[in-house]
Amino acid sequence: MTTPIKPPGQGATPSPTSDVDASRAPGSVKAGGESFQSTLEKTSHSASATSTADAVRALVDDVKAGRATVGQALDRLVARALDSGIARTLPAAQRADLEASLRTALLDDPSLVALTKELERGR
Question: Nearest-CA neighbor of 61 among 70, 71, 52?
Fold first, then answer.
């Protein structure tokens, strides 16, 4: 079964704003009185991402300067992960499972293994 395709200019043309709902426009206020933009700004994680990147850079610098081994740096990364976000609220058994999973990933994940080897070579 085929449906004919109408060339441009034939048929009813909707007005450009006919499907726009003003209440959903950027910057509009939701029923709760808060705009999407202000909600988005509250959930921004750029500061924590920067501090995480800085912490990782500091660990790499420590390894390169001989102040820490690669193993010590990885231990610190795992500890940082366990002490951040929702991980810190986990019961001890779940934290132990998470730690085991992170350490397994560091040993088995090809990308993480490659990064570890690259860090070891960069010393």
Answer: 70
